[in-house]
Amino acid sequence: MTPDRRRLAELTGDLSAAGGVRLVTLGDGVERGVRALEFRTGTGLAFEVLVDRCMDIGHAEHAGRSFGWRSPTGFRHPGLHENNDEDGLSWLRSFSGLIVTAGLDHTLFGGEVPAGGYRYPPRASVRHGLHGRAANLPARLTGYGERWEDERCVLWAEGEVRQAAVFAENLRLVRRIEADLGGNEIRLVDTVSNAGFEPTPHMFLYHINLGWPLLDEGARLEADIRETVWRSDSVAEQKADHVTFPGPVPGFVEQVYEHALVPGEDGLHRVAVANDRLGMKVSVEWPAAEFPYFFEWLNLRSGNYAVGLEPSTHHVSGDAAAREDGSMIWLGPLESRTYHTTFRVS
């Protein structure tokens, strides 16, 4: 337990003895030049906010035990990214960390969709890559630090990500991340706004990725699932258990599920991954009205071992289907949507 404000001031001349937020710059390999904010709450919860990668959360651990997934790509500098490489699959070359944001105008697999609403004849359509552009856009860091609210010390950071082009979308994401000194939770508040004057499509998804040692043979998914409404073909072919997880499997093909969740009486969806052997659980909760859909990504492949929890604004069928069935979110001029998500480690 963290001492109260006065006692803490008596014990140390610098709050960083207990925890805090520190801005650093990564300096080697594909990560060179990426700014990161290191959060430490003093309970063992530590995580880094990747300022130059949409303010996503990269490494995350508790008491020295990692739970944010680490892929072979590292936290690649966005200057190395080409959105249209490899038929839109280049997103997979920078896919790593606890949170990778998908959006802001497109999620899920790529494809070509009409762009006539932008009224620029040479741009009759737009081609999207996997999960959109947001994850590889740097943020403008607007503030970070520690703030006392009576006897509660809040660690915080806020930044702005702009996805824009002339004669195309002009979307702004304002992201705020908070954690309490002495606490074991991360709070994420995102507001996506249409800063332009043409109605603009909006799709949003969090790719929340949990890895070893939290994920291990015998770890399990905890979720109140009403029904599973969609499965990838690989589920029937491989039949790997998506509730109690196996260990790594060479050559495993990702299994993806769309689950319809039952919200709690407070209107929140809650999912978790628990490891009884480790005595550790990471849970995620969000308002069902903000993210009505949920996907589970099971990636048991050796060397890429992970499970993904994915709150989403849209069904797994994607962009073109959302336009066709009328479920696409269209943000009008200066219109916005806000999303609230909480992570807890226990």
TrEMBL record:
Residues forming coiled coils: none
Residues passing through the membrane, by range: none
Domain of life: Bacteria
Name the UniProt record assigns to this protein: Aldose 1-epimerase family protein
Gene3D superfamilies according to UniProt: 2.70.98.10
Pfam families hit by this protein: DUF4432
